[in-house]
Amino acid sequence: MYLIAEIGINHNGDLAIAQQLIDAAADAGFDAVKFQKRAVDVVYSAEFLDSPRESPWGTTQREQKEGLEFDSSDYRQVDAYCKEVGIAWSASAWDMKSVEFIRGFDVPFNKVASAMLGHIPLLQEVASEAKKTFLSTGMATLVEIDQAVEIFREADCPIELMHCNSTYPMREEEANLRCIPMLRERYGCDVGYSGHESSLLKVCAAAVAIGATSLERHITLDRAMYGSDQAASLSANALRSFVEAVRKIPVIMGTGEKEITPAELAVREKLRVDVHG
After folding, report:
1. Residue extents of the structural domains in the chain
2. Most exposed of 87, 129, 156, 175 (fewest Cβ within 10 Å)?
3. How large is the average pLDDT for residues 7-15?
4. The whole model's pTM is what?
């Protein structure tokens, strides 16, 4: 099972916070950390960027959006730091310019966010790399997922779908985890789960039990920090127990074959009563 710690923009534009989150994820045993990359002037209109928004960086949407973005120098430091602590990293690109930007770092996998599943040119560009790609399926119809999967298969690009509900935080009763085996059967590929619930373990544990092959969860230093994703994130101090629990679930689930274990056999020899009429 592949575990991705989604830092996203929870670093709040601060490289020191990002490094603390990388440390926490690596120490807990995650396989990778993931960021989000946007070219602000491409993703948002000038009118939107000029509109008011109070934030730690100023009073406009532009100041807030630009305050949350890492530049090339920041990502070079992220790349070096992840290599130093021994954890993989990637970033979901929200525009074509950002696809090219992330490509420059030769990350081990790509990630397409749910919001980008309908951006056909972006899907085609990502698929052209033929690099393992995780596709989140939040807010998407099966017809839309069909189209995305076809693009990647035509490009002979390996994919793993991620079942997702794109609300922050997600209510547990809206998780609809039975979509995981449905998607696996429909598309004949691995299916993971990208979660935005506020609870620590319940939904992810159920997802693994029903067959999820990967998990992605947002992480934060403090769920009370500034930012729209913080409340739907796992706190850094809870990551180790989360990883230990979800990695144990496949062992707990077992093989499904009924057999007497060696430990059980010793008990049987002491307690079993066999009476034949």
Report:
1. 2-271
2. 156
3. 94
4. 0.93
